[in-house]
Design brief:
The protein is α+β, with helices and mostly antiparallel strands and 449 residues long. 31% of the residues lie in helices and 27% in strands. It is built from 13 helices and 23 strands. α2 crosses α9. The radius of gyration is 24 Å and the shape is globular. The chain starts with 20 loop residues before the first helix and ends in an 8-residue tail after the last helix. Bound molecules: adenosine-5'-triphosphate and magnesium ion (MG). The site of adenosine-5'-triphosphate has 16 residues, from β8, β13, β16 and α9.
């Protein structure tokens, strides 16, 4: 992509309305624009990062045997009356009437709708296990939308729902999602700590939140520091795998949020030098809730014994539009964002120090073509602007590798690579530069764990 033809409205000043660094940087880097309280447009570069996150989620969902569909954002109130949640949900739910005076709502979550889909088609134990998910916009009229897309009113959620014949099978499904979430967050470059959690309005009895540590996090967390070092299990997460041992291993180390922490138990379980008490951001939340929805909504399956029984369900959420700022909270420095390669909006930026100079333009044009041929997602800063502005801009938007070329380098046959994260610089022959960047990027793409 040529920057001269792109839409990247960066800001020099720190916007006053933004309290936390990720919100400031998302506005300054031209990723989002606020449209109303808790409502944002995703500008091209922000949207690109959001989509990279979505793609990683989709890959790990597919690997774990989950199947993607798409449900509407608008729902009929009748479904929620069936489950009993229409009155219980409260003011976070945006309610309205259509032209026929029918009660409608903008979905804050989809347990009811997916249960309705399931009961329409699935009748037998032979057709489960099933794990269906979608990635769709949600609306929750949050009391205090804040921190940009970290807590917005309209936000993107991956929400998945598992269906199993009995509790034992449903708990196995829960374990699989648990492990697949560990993998998903690791591929995003994040260390997410699973914490035993309250089930809240979703209900049920088994729940974990996945939390990343950040000073600006909304909740206080307490955990054993070894969790932060644990290698991500390289296991098969597909339907047939029993991941209870991995689950047991991960949950044997103490981790709890402020709502659930039992200070005495925490101190008994974790030696003083291993205690981590820090702020954290919830990026995912999973629940097993048994027959809470299937029973009132009559989503039954016939078991091997010929008897009908409500199907056992779980639900599993990840917030892609919250993950963008969460990643920035984890990866930034004084100059701007420092994207991990796996989610960077572009993997490399090519900086032409003298756009308009025929020889430099030709050499940079050739490098740009070489990047594309090498399959590297590159942004080419071909604008007629000063070097200082280009460097500051490249640092601000956080592209992992900068390839810098100007008339002097061209005369000497040398280009410069700047590693955004370490600040390290290397000078090398122009014709070796793209191959070098490719060799740096490839191992970090993390297609596999
Ligand atoms: P929170 O406690 O932060 O309000 P929640 O428990 O209400 O979250 P869930 O209903 O479990 O969240 O939703 C699943 C995921 O959706 C969360 O883990 C989070 O990543 C994301 N999410 C929830 N609410 C918001 C929001 N207002 N803005 C952005 N993302 C959100
Ligand atoms: Mg909430």
């Amino acid at each position: 992509m040529r920057l001269s033809r792109y839409f990247l409205p960066t800001l020099r000043e720190v916007p006053k309305e933004a309290e936390i660094i990720s919100h400031q940087l998302m506005l300054r880097a031209g990723m989002i624009k606020q449209q109303a309280a808790g409502s944002y447009s995703w500008l091209p570069m922000g949207f690109k990062v959001l989509n990279k996150i979505v793609r990683i989620i989709e890959e790990e969902q597919a690997r774990s045997g989950a199947v993607q569909l798409l449900m509407p954002t608008l729902q009929s109130a009748d479904l929620w009356r069936e489950s009993g949640r229409y009155d219980a949900y409260g003011k976070e739910m945006l309610r309205f009437k259509d032209r026929h005076e029918r009660d409608m709502l903008y979905g804050p979550t989809n347990e009811e709708m997916i249960t309705d889909i399931f009961r329409t088609y699935v009748k037998s134990y032979k057709d489960v296990p099933l794990n269906l998910y979608h990635i769709q916009w949600k609306f929750r009229d949050e009391v205090r939308p804040r921190f940009g897309t970290m807590r917005s009113r309209e936000f993107l959620m991956k929400d998945g729902y598992s269906f199993d014949v009995d509790e034992a099978a449903a708990v196995r499904a829960y374990h699989r999602v648990f492990v697949s979430y560990l993998r998903t967050f690791a591929r995003l470059g994040l260390t997410a700590i699973p914490m035993r959690a309250d089930t809240g309005p979703i209900g049920g009895d088994l729940s974990h939140e996945f939390i990343i540590l950040a000073e600006t996090g909304e909740s206080q967390v307490f955990c054993h520091s070894d969790i932060l070092e644990k290698p991500i299990p390289a296991v098969d997460t597909d339907f047939d795998s029993d991941l209870s041992a991995v689950f047991a291993d991960w949950t044997s180390l103490y981790a709890a949020t402020e709502e659930m922490v039992d200070q005495a138990a925490y101190e008994a379980a974790v030696p003083a030098d291993k205690r981590v008490s820090a702020r954290g951001i919830e990026v995912g939340h999973i629940f097993y809730f048994g027959t809470k929805y299937s029973e009132p909504m009559k989503a039954n399956v016939t078991g091997p014994d010929g008897k009908d029984a409500p199907v056992h369900m779980g639900s599993y959420g990840i917030g892609p539009s919250r993950l963008v700022p969460a990643l920035i909270e984890a990866f930034h420095d004084d100059a701007g964002i420092v994207w991990p390669v796996s989610v960077a909006p572009f993997e490399a930026i090519l900086i032409n120090l003298k756009a308009g100079d025929a020889a430099t333009d030709a050499a940079c044009g050739a490098l740009y073509a070489e990047f594309q041929a090498a399959g590297i997602d590159v942004l080419y800063d071909d604008r007629d602007a000063g070097a200082g502005q280009k460097f500051a801009n490249a640092d601000l938007i956080g592209i992992p590798y900068q390839l810098i070329l100007g008339p002097r380098g061209l005369r000497e046959g040398q280009a410069e690579i700047k590693h955004r994260k370490s600040g390290e610089r290397e000078t090398l022959p122009i014709d070796a530069a793209v191959a070098r960047i490719k060799s740096l990027i490839e191992p970090q793409r993390l297609d596999q764990i």
